[in-house]
């Protein structure tokens, strides 16, 4: 009866309201078995509320939550068999590391010998085999987080829920733990829901990225798709640096939609479904800062658009530079005075401030959004 | 020259300077008066009522050998211990409630907890006479309802002394437990529940053991305050419910036997002082300090 490809977690029409405030609006979400799903968004977007509802720490106002195909909406947290890791580790300060990790096993009537073996295995997995007798406060932050992870996985949970587990760590440790966490998750093949506000963590770790904003799921998909094909201005803005220009559809050219921006520049743009758009429709263009290619001079090429600009400010980053540009509209191009950002790798020296550059952007790198303001 | 002078002066005076008002107050108001009492305890009160200055061990001999004092001392510690235990059990619930109340109501509840301190302790103790007395609220209600025809004598026994003490000590216990509970990370109980505990089990595994420092500090405070009280047994107790401090009061105020009163009070001080030291040795004084943070 149980199907091998069933979903580890399924949210159906889940909504959470606190009095008048809607924290999560009518959300559908599926976490396939073994996959790593990240809920990403700014604070207050509903990502933690969603996680806490899956955990059973909060009851949804409406909708149904299923774990391994079974509705758990009415199941209390201690019967859900979930591994929960908190931002502040939440290790029991009055218990030894061993007792911390063994805690969940105690409530599962696991025989003594097996408890010992499983705690040992879990500590081995998080690469901290010799700290059983210590107290949590004798360990560093990173070690504590590993113990918290060991405590969550030792019970062989159906789902691993991670609530910003890396944000209390300092930058170097965070990257190390990110790799480590992903390794452990792969090794165990456990379905994982990860909550973060850090886009690089989200992009690096996820199989599926769920971008949330004020209680809505803005976009859901593989990280590269969400990054390259943002479905809304919010997603484009939240992930990386984007230029968003309003404009109007002015026909087609070589399989691309031709858009004339409000400032007057003509830019080719692809659509995700490769379908055309009616002429005159209001649209917005999204161009990622690193896809604006700067050069002293570009030759026209099919499927690309050219603009000229003056470098206003250069933010030198070593291997790359972030340019703040103002379009100049040379050669009779009226698209002047628009502020753009570009991030380019540096060949020897960056373009100096005040210099004139050409910008080339491929139609494949321009994303078309509907014109009405959604963010 | 000045450099070497300042180098030699490694002793930093500033902490002592900042501490000096406190140290001077403790010295003038606590240490020196206590030394007076120590000296007094070796004097002797003669039959004519005058004090004979000297070094006599008579008071100490009487205090340490007379079983009358020992019985009352034991009774004092028992009453203080029972009151403390009742305070711990009864006080935990409101402390938990206040600690887990949304922040904006918390201040109000803490203020309500402080409210009794605005009324004199003696007045608060005497109020029980209006409640439990022969013509008090309980008796008149029961009589008006026809449940009893004659008023019941409820006052002036050990139970009312304990009641009065619990009434007096409860805010101290609640505050101490509250501070301890308030400092516990809420995600700990969530973590315990996610690992298979029911809410009650999570409380027993996590919240209760982590609130022990507050309980311990509250218990120590309540016990010491309870064991040293004389107003409650005087107002609410009968002749057989005297506590040790009543003996001191009796000796000094009624009999005007200051030397004996001094010896008695020093005995109580020594006992309670030893208790505090033993306590801090087992729990670590930092554990108690933690709950005041």
UniProtKB/TrEMBL annotation, chain A:
Pfam families named in the record: ABC_tran, TOBE_2
InterPro entries reported in the protein's UniProt record: AAA+_ATPase (IPR003593), ABC_SmlMolc_Importer (IPR050093), ABC_transporter-like_ATP-bd (IPR003439), ABC_transporter-like_CS (IPR017871), Mo/tungstate-bd_C_term_dom (IPR008995), P-loop_NTPase (IPR027417), Transp-assoc_OB_typ2 (IPR013611)
Lineage: Bacteria, Pseudomonadati, Pseudomonadota, Alphaproteobacteria, Rhodospirillales
Protein name, entry field: ATP-binding cassette domain-containing protein
GO terms under biological process: quaternary ammonium group transport
Sorted UniProt keywords: ATP-binding, Nucleotide-binding, Transport
Keyword Zinc attributed: no
ABC transporter domain sequence ranges: 9-239
GO CC terms in record: ATP-binding cassette (ABC) transporter complex
Superkingdom of source: Bacteria
Record's signal peptide: none
Any one GO molecular function term: ATP hydrolysis activity
TrEMBL record, chain B:
GO biological process, one term: transmembrane transport
Domain ABC transmembrane type-1: 73-279
Superkingdom assignment: Bacteria
GO cellular component: plasma membrane
Keywords: Cell membrane, Membrane, Transmembrane, Transmembrane helix, Transport
Topological category with respect to the lipid bilayer: Multi-pass membrane protein
Organism for this UniProt entry: Roseospira navarrensis
Keyword Cell membrane in annotation: yes
The protein's name in its UniProt record: ABC transporter permease subunit
InterPro entries listed in its UniProt record: MetI-like, MetI-like_sf
Similarity-based family: Belongs to the binding-protein-dependent transport system permease family. CysTW subfamily.
Transmembrane segments: 16-43, 79-100, 107-123, 160-179, 210-231, 266-284
Subcellular localization: Cell membrane
